[in-house]
Amino acid sequence: MVHTDTGDDSHQDHLFDRFLVYITVEKGLSANTVESYSRDLQNFRDYLSAQSIDTLGEVRAAAILGYLIHLRNQGLAPKSRARHLVTLRGFFRFLHQEKCIPHDPAALIELPKSGLHLPGVLSLGDIQTLMAAPDKSRPLGLRDAAMLELLYAAGLRVSELIHLRLMDLNREAGFVRVVGKGGKERVVPIGQTALRVVGDYIRKARPVLLKKAASEFLFVARQGRPMSRQGFWKLLKKYASRAGIRHPISPHTLRHSFASHLLEGGADLRVVQTMLGHADIATTQIYTHVSAERLKTIHRLYHPRA
User: Fold this and answer.
1) In terms of CATH architecture, what is 124-299?
2) Residue 157 among the catalytic residues
């Protein structure tokens, strides 16, 4: 049975609150993300009031599209408008699943591609030349090579990489334990190449870099402290230049490349979601756009009647 009596203000407040509890408890989103969702929903509610739409059950796709146009007229960038739409899609999907509304008005509204810009994905050839760029005969070069290998092998965020502790790496089992956004832990497998380079770094370079200092961190800079985000960013740009990669590159480029290469290789989307530490699979689905474009390119190149 569908309950569509969503016109009373207190009842609407209750639905908004239920959704925020849902994304906090069930989805495990961070406090900052929940606050962002709350602001987006309040803005949308104000818009509905101005349009004399009094109940959530009255909302149709046209009203959501009108709201997106309203946001554009206010000067919001495509990426910000896409974020608002992600909020509304999640909210109305929740209401429909909970049988609070008879139809999901946002289900057929696609996310604007211009609002979901991804940093460029590296080719496998670029990955190989980038990984070969550090001078592994030097302690700093071996550390940098290990960081690059692990960043790509596990699809880590740069903040996750620099704060890894020595105890987070299980070389025997071949995985790394990662503390991601909102303090959520996940376990990600890593391949033999990354394990070998990281193992070499631990044996040969880390003691040299530490000198007589002690540190819990896996990758160390001066006096056993972890490297800063900016410090790693500079190293990556140096090695990208050395590898002859001319297009813009950031630490997140390796994370995007990790996800895209897995999907192109046939990995299940849910598996990639788990390894990336995404609370919502909708976030992971942006990578399917990259893979779909890659598949279309392959089809055009090799299909006899393309």
Assistant:
1) Orthogonal Bundle (1.10)
2) yes
